Amino acid sequence: MSRRRRGRRTDENDEQPPKRKRTLLSTEIEDRIESLIGRAGEKSTFSLQSNLEGSAGVLEADLPTHKSEILRILFIYIYKKK
Questions:
Q1: From the CA atom positions of the chain, what is the Rg in Å?
Q2: What confidence score (pLDDT) does residue 63 get?
């Protein structure tokens, strides 16, 4: 029985995809979450309650996959407001 790893074979001519893609996606998501949380408290034509309800709905959808980022950004905003 061979102990070779299954999966993609790498030859010298094969180009591997950049490994930074996940980091870029993570950064984009963090930026979006940060923007969303930051806008929740802005003064606008909408009430604070409406802004918070809208933000909560979006964050609730992202919570299972981005819980640590959401909490970190919330803590940063809470700390800055003190």
A1: 20
A2: 87
* Residue for token pair 């964050």: 59
One-letter amino acid identity for 82? K
The helix-helix angle for 21-40 and 48-81 (nearest 10°) equals 110
Question: What ranges do the domains of the chain cover?
Answer: 21-81
pLDDT at residue 8, rounded to an integer: 55
b/e map 26-59, b = 16+ CB within 10 Å: eeeeeeebbebbeebeeeeeeeeeebeeebeeeb
* Predicted local confidence at residue 3, as pLDDT: 60
Q: Average of pLDDT values for 59-70?
A: 87
